[in-house]
Structures are given as structure tokens and as C-alpha cells.
From TrEMBL:
Keywords, alphabetical: Transferase
Organism per entry: Paenalkalicoccus suaedae
Name of the protein in question: Gamma-glutamyltransferase family protein
Pfam families linked to this entry: G_glu_transpept (PF01019)
Gene3D superfamilies found in the cross-reference section: 1.10.246.230, 3.60.20.40
Amino acid sequence: MNQKEALHYPYASQRNVQFARNGMVATSQPLAAQAGLDILKQGGNAIDAAIATAACLTVVEPTSNGIGSDAFAIVWTKDKEIHGLNASGQAPSKLSLDAVNKLGYEKEMPKFGLTPVTVPGAPAAWASLSKKFGKLSLKQTLAPAVKLARDGFPVSPTLSFYWQKAFEVFSKELKEEQFKAWFDTFAPTGKAPEVGEMWKSEGHASTLEKIGETDANAFYQGELADAIHAFSKEHGGFIRKKDLENYEPEWVDPINVTYKGYDVWEIPPNGQGMIALMALQMLKDDTQTVREDEASYHKQIEAMKLAFADGEKYITEEQHMSTSVDELLSDSYAKKRRALIGEEALTPEAGDPKGSGTVYLSTADGEGNMVSFIQSNYMGFGSGIVIPGTGISLQNRGHNFSLDAEHDNALAPGKRTYHTIIPGFLSKNGEAVGPFGVMGGFMQPQGHMQVVMNTVDFHLNPQAALDAPRWQWMKGKQVLLEQSVPNHIALALAARGHEIQVTHQSGSFGRGQIIWRDPKTGVLQGGTEPRTDGAIAAY
């Protein structure tokens, strides 16, 4: 990568790319990043640091994730092996199409309440990562999060903004008794906390302590599982203790495509990382040399639209997919889809390959271990359900299930739904380049593709790759552009038939983190998202 050229990229912020040798943590909250670095300094490795950072994020960024989240991880170990962890949860055994239909939902799963709650995977992810790769105990790695929850912390600007938005929505929509604990926990004074205001939660602290002391058994088999079971049963939910007891995260082999000499790695379905890979497959033979070029924007958008059309039709838990990952990622299918990209914007439709879906963090240590980790509730605070007295905010991932019985992603008991959160990883010639990710719902594969192309095609350093203006395909021919995209490109895309909307609200374009490693020196270089309260902690 031409780092000299990258440092002079005109859209780079005033912050420079960060360099270190012994360890680095990049995430969306400074206090969480610092906690991960403290764990490295206490003798932990990159995996321990990732767990500590993730647990802290449930406290210092509850607008995006919580103890009741799902999680995914890609781990690159010092022996140059890559591992994937799918810690998304299944639908409860009582949650079926018939049961949901009887509640009056026939076209779409609800967003809020207990109905869309699936089994949370994040605590099991922390325990599994710690057991397989960690050097410290889970109790040690969760200790910083316990302290932050118990002592409190001052709320940061971006966090306060999204907290206020959630409070406004929840105050209007969530009137039932089952939502009272959310307001007791996250708005104890009757409002969302202001910038700089202290917020704390003894419930979070106590729960995190119990998870750490029992290697998460308290959450899935003990008193926390009992509390979830009792609350769900009392309020007509579907999740039960048996669902929690039966849960195990799954170690998986990451999938990849080779893009211009680099291997781009994602977690296989039920995650939507494959969408980024499919889009890159369509573009790998194009010569992209100038980033701010309307033809380049056009091709990227068209490739992503086609990949999303396939993803929305086929991606679910892998054994329920009607077509295989290999077929969707094949060269022959990529060429077939690439041939559909013309000079004008198209309305995407899924193809037939048989004829030929938050918080994110990156960590690295001085030994060569690196982690790409993501966890999320969904739609901000998730379901709006908090188990009273525990701080456990439950996700609403079941909202993504289809209620069409013939769809690959149709709701079924014990099934995992199409999932939006995806960690990414880049390698080259068998050496780690490093972890990357862009959180933010269906923006995530779009952000992954743009970050990879910024790095590989346009030679941008990690900070510049994140600072660069972004686009987001919404649906049909609708494309959202950041205000920093040059006006001549917006006009040229509109002339090609794209329905362009330019916005100054950068929050919808995702929030990313990157750490790259120099294979010769081991020096780490990191970038953090300018669209949030991002930070890099390093030494």
C-alpha cells in the first residue's frame, strides 16, 4: 500500500493514522478502548482485550449493544491461523410462524417487545473466546466493565444524541408494563442523559460480575437465565430457560474471496458478510485508480445492489439456504452478475447461481494475535426489553425473519435468522494485514466493500480509508450520499438514473475501525471512525 500517497488524501481528517508496536485497540468509545489496552498491559492478549472492550461497550454504548446482544468474531492467531465465531442466537423453541400469526403478525415480525427476541449470544461469545484463546480469566477481562457500570461514566456527545433519539421514540411507542425496566435503567431521571452527565447501572455491574465469575453459566443456566425465563413467561414472550440452556456459539471457518492479491475474510451465513464478498467478486477485474470518479461510484453501487438482491433472497442459516455459499461466490456467477452492470442504474433482482445482514472493535497485540469483533442488539437499544434489576437489554434479531413460509429465511423454532452484523479481516500471501469493520445495519457490507477498495485500489491508510466520503444504497435506485461526496459525482450519478439524496447526517453511513500490521516490522497502524466518539488506545 502506498502510504505516502494515502497520507495526503484530501478528505482525510485532521487526525493522523495511529502507530504502535506492542498493542492497539480501536473502537467507538474511548473508555472501552482504554479498558482493552489496560488488559493488554496486564498481560492479556488481543483476545482478552477484545472481550474486555466488548463488555465495556455494553456499558458505555448501550444505544448500540448490550449484555443481551449477539456477537461474531474473526480471530487471527500468532501461528497464522484464522478462526471464526458465530455467536448469534436461535429462535426460541416456542416461536413459530403459527404462534406469530396468532398474535396478528402476518407480513412482518414486530420490532419491539418480547416476540422478536432470540437467544442472546454475546456472553457465550466472551466465554468461548476466553476459554479457547485467552490468557486471563473471564472475571479479569470483565472487571473494567463492572467498574464502569458501578462507578459510572460521563456520557459522550454521539452517545447522548442517539440515547435522546431512542428515548423520544420509546416514550411514544412503548407504553406497556413490560417496557418499564428500560426506562428505569436508561432514563432513571425521566430523560436521556445529557452530554457529560454521569450514568451508572448497578444492575449491569452485578450481572457482568456473575457472568465473569461463572464463565457465563449464570446467564445460560443459572439465576440470570431464571430471571429471563420468568419475565418472558409473565409478559407473554417466547424465550425460556431451556432455550438458554441449549445454546452454544459455533466455531466456523471464515469464507473469503481474493481481491487483487488480498484475501478478504468474512463469517459465513447466517451473516451478511457474503454480500460484500459477492460485490467484490464482481469488481475484481476492474481497474480502479481514481477514487473520486463517477464511473467507479456507479460500478460499486450497481455491484452492491446485485449482491444485496441475492443476499436478501438466499442468506439465512446455512443449512436452510436453497443455494450454496460456493455457488454464490463462484467466478462464473460473479461474471454473470457483472454482465448486468451497464451505463444506467438498474433495479436489482436476485439471480440464479445454480444456472452457472451495532458496535465494532479491532484489537492487536505484540505477539501477532488480532481480533475483529462485532456485537449488537439491533435498531439501537433493541427490543426495548430490559430484565428488571439486571441491566440485560435484549436484542430483537427475530425481526429479520421472513413470515413467508416459502422463503429461505422463514421463521422456524431453533433457527438463526439473516444477520446484519459482520466482522471483516484482510490478509495477503498468508500474512495478516488486519481486522476491519463498519457497523450499522444493512450499511455494513457496503462499508466493508468501500473500506477494502479504499485500501487496495486507492492506497489509503487506515484513517483516510475511514474518513473518505461514503455512499449507501437504500432500495431500488435510491442512493444516499454523504455531503462530502463531490457535487459533480452526485450530478453524474443522477444522470445515470440513480435517485440521489445528499445528506449531512453521517450517522447512517456506518462507524468503522481498522488495524493493519506491517508483516516485516510488526508495527501496527490504526484508524478510528470520525462519525462517532471513536478512539484508538495503543502502546
